Amino acid sequence: MNKLYLLGSKKWHTALCISLTAVLLGGCWDNRELNEIGISSGTAFDWIDNRWTITYQVINPLSSSGTMGSGGESNTPPFLTFTEQGTSIMEAISRSSMTSTRQLFFAHSRMTVFSENMARKGITEVLDLFLRKPDARETVNVFISRRKGRDILDQLMQSSKNQGAGVQLMMQQEANLSSYYPGIRMFELAVNLASESHCATIPEIKLSGQEVMDTTQETAITDLPSRLELGRLGVLKKDKLVGWLSIREAFGLTFLTDQIKTASISIASEPNKENVKDSSFSLLHSKTKVKPKWENDHFVMDVHIRGGGMLLQLSGDVDLNKPGEINRLEQNINKQVLSYIQDSWNALQKINADATGFATLVHRKYPRRWKQIKASGSWDKEFRAIEIRPHVSIKIERFGLGSKSYKNIEKE
Amino acid sequence: MSTSRPGIASQSNNSGPDSVPSSRPFTDSLEDNLNELLDRLGESADVVVRKLDSEDVLPIALVYIDGLINVDIINQSILQPLTNTLLQYKGKESKESAAEHLRAKLLPITQFQECKTFESAFSMLFEGHTLVFIDGNKVALSMDTTGWQMRSINEPTSQAVVRGPKEGFTENLRTGTSLLRRKIKSPDLWIEEYKIGARTQTNIALVYMKGITDDQILKEVRSRLNGIQTDAILESNYIEEFIQDGKWTPFPTIQNSERPDAVAAGILEGQVALLIDGTPFALLTPATFFSFFQSSEDYYQRYDVASFLRLIRVVSFFVSMTLPALYIAITTFHQEMVPTPLLVSLAAQREGVPFPALVEALVMELTFDVLREAGVRMPRAIGPAVSIVGALVLGQAAVQAGLVSAAMVIVVSFTAICNFVIPSQVISNALRLIRFVMMIAASVLGLFGITSFLMFLMIHMAGLSSVGVPYLSPVAPMTPRYLKDVFVRAPHSLLKIRPKLAAKQEAYRQAQMSKENLEHDSSNKGGQSP
């Protein structure tokens, strides 16, 4: 009985100790009032004159406060930017406290911009910082800019006061509706760079004009001379930017990596006028399967793409009721997708960066061979030798009202 | 008005008298008796002594307390027969037989008792009886002539319903028991009466259903009532605080109600009701935590609506307890939890607010409590002024002056509204106190503090009991079949078993009751059909 009692009391002691440690582990030791923090919505990293230049975009709550209270002045900028320089990242970060009246708060940060020269130098330091700092969010969208990163952060947006959130929305919409390329978040970037292929892609963000629209008066016009827009796709290999894919090439890569959500594809409707893209097809769903195969002395990738969607626009002299017409259009779509894939593949081979993640597939299918490849460090060579065999089968599932193009109906 | 007297502790029942010469009997002499009586009463202005004596007539005296009696009854049922008798008497018989004669034959009155001591005489007088002293008799005749001003039965003010009976208890104990009798026409409705309070001699009725209420509970309640050593019971809260289980808890363990239907429902479920003379609020015990979320209207509305409303109450309870604390925790610790646009708008509102969120919340909550208290005390004519001051000055103007943020006003007012959703006043008052502790916990440790405090509350509540019934039952200890009437209200046809209040003999009793109910039902039908 006595022993049992002791055991019981020991249990209680353990429980008490664990719950007391929980007090220390709670993680919410840091009490800060809302008006003491500067909510950062974006960060930019530049590499200028061998020094880190970090720009923070801090939301200015006064401009977003609507009608209540003392705020709501429309000519105060919706956010402010601070730029700091330092020989290391942390130095630049800690200097921010010397200019900012508020403690910077990064949990709501939506985007991080790397300048191109910084990306070419290598991004590991930034990645490490993001993964280590407790208040840094790994879910921020990452972009590369050819200009200085701070130019991007200075640019005001018209429809979205919070620029970081606006860019994130823009990225999401692009990825969902046109699927040229998916956006990438910090943790995905880290995961991709750490994978077998050591490659990742980062979208480019750029200004459509030369000027930076950074005063509130300038945005009071309907057609801004310069807007933020998404550009090409930067390819990183081993944490360094090694090349760019055009939007068309990026689109092919998206097919290869099975990241298509909905996309529209322009096709030629008439067989004799192949290069006149007068019709368009909306791809609603698509699935890509890649199977690696070892053939004699190189890898062959069997790429099977299956998908379906609806015909959005039809011109030319086509009657869908005729047998084989739909089939022929489908063939055109397939051909189009094949050409995207081929272009993309050629570009990737030229850069020699495995942004497709084929290395992971090879590792899975041929673990032993992969060990050899890894040991000899010959993946680059193997990658260059890869042959892809894409098979595309996309179905037109719906074609809307009428089996003929409106042009034909008009003629009749 | 008094001090506690340890000397009285030896008495088993507190109905005994308070003054030192206990139980002094009357003497033969009418004069002596009357003098002594008036002396003890301090010749109070409302004591009326009416002497009937002339030359050849037996001396008789009527004593009553003005205001407690019905003058008509005295005139018709006592004075008139007495004078007739006295006229006939003329010294024919002995004094003793005269008294016997009066008592047995002449006085046409229902309640009729004999008093032999001063003490019993006093208690009779204060009940509104009239005492008749006859010279040469050691016995006074006590007649029920009760008739004081009473409030009529009105709609309950604190627990109004849209649908359901509109009658409420009054201050009169007898009215209360009669209202219950009218609802439960069963011989099993047993009423025990106690007199508690050495000086107030307050009548207390313990009402229960014989055969449904657990004997254990009944015994416990009785012994707790008998254990009360006080000289004054003026309201049911006196009793509640004396008999409740834990003293150190903000949670009430005894229900109170102004509604006879709610009390009857409680009695039928095995609760013990305590009706206290002088207050319309009856007590119901044992009461579990979840019984405070039940409103009598739940049973008068369709079950789906009732269930929805009950869920809203439970949610409101938690909102009312935690909302200001959550606001503090999230805005000072966990800003990352809030969607960015909301955070920006909150930050914009807090721009220029001079105080930290905790101070802001405390000030606003205290302000609301002050307003609420002022609203209760305020004379009815200037009542609306309070709401204007509260809404305009303290809400809008304070926000515009930048003293508090608009979001905080919303949080505080929504919390207050949620507090009013809970049907039981006692538990919403408990919340008012808990809320402050919760806010402080939140300001120190954030969400972690809130969770810790909630767990502390849970442990505390799990440890409470009400007259031996676990406070969180039937959720903890869990009894799934009793959950039909806890968070939701199942249709009446499905509420076949009575929620268990006491641990013992419940199954047996339920079985017996349901059989009885069936028999009762069939006999009713038999009675109606011919």
Plain-language structure description:
The complex is a heterodimer of chains A (412) and B (530). With 412 residues, chain A is an alpha/beta fold. Chain A has 13 helices and 13 strands. Chain A has helices at residues 2-25, 89-99, 116-121, 124-132, 149-154, 163-178, 186-194, 247-256, 325-351, 358-365, 367-376, 379-385, 406-411; strands spanning 37-48, 51-59, 79-86, 103-105, 111-115, 141-145, 199-207, 228-237, 240-245, 263-267, 279-295, 298-313, 387-398. In chain A, strands 1, 2, 3, 4, 5 and 6 form a 6-stranded mixed beta sheet that branches. In chain A, strands 10-11-12-13 form a 4-stranded mixed beta sheet, sandwiched between helices. In chain A, strands 7-8-9 form a 3-stranded antiparallel beta sheet. Chain A starts with a helix and ends with a helix. Chain B is of the alpha+beta class and 530 residues long. Chain B has helices spanning 30-40, 71-89, 95-106, 118-126, 173-183, 215-226, 236-243, 260-268, 303-332, 340-350, 357-377, 383-400, 406-421, 425-463, 506-528; strands spanning 47-52, 60-65, 112-115, 129-134, 140-144, 189-196, 202-209, 255-257, 272-276, 282-285, 465-466, 469-470. Chain A binds chain B through residues 23, 26-28, 30-35, 37, 39, 41, 59, 61-62, 64-66, 68-71, 105, 107-108, 110, 135, 137, 162, 165, and chain B through 331-336, 340-341, 343-353, 356-357, 399-400, 402, 405-406, 443, 445-448. Chain A: Residues 30-207 form the Spore germination protein N-terminal domain.
Largest interface: A-B, 31 and 31 residues
Low-pLDDT windows of residues of chain B: 1-21, 503-516, 518-530
Topology order of chain B in helix (H) and strand (E) letters: HEEHHEHEEHEEHHEHEEHHHHHHEEH
Q: In angstroms, what is the radius of gyration of chain A?
A: 27 Å
- How much is the radius of gyration of chain B in Å? 30 Å
Protein name (chain A): Germination protein
Domain Spore germination GerAC-like C-terminal (chain A): 233-400
Pfam families (chain A): Spore_GerAC, Spore_GerAC_N
Keywords (chain A): Germination, Lipoprotein, Membrane, Palmitate, Signal
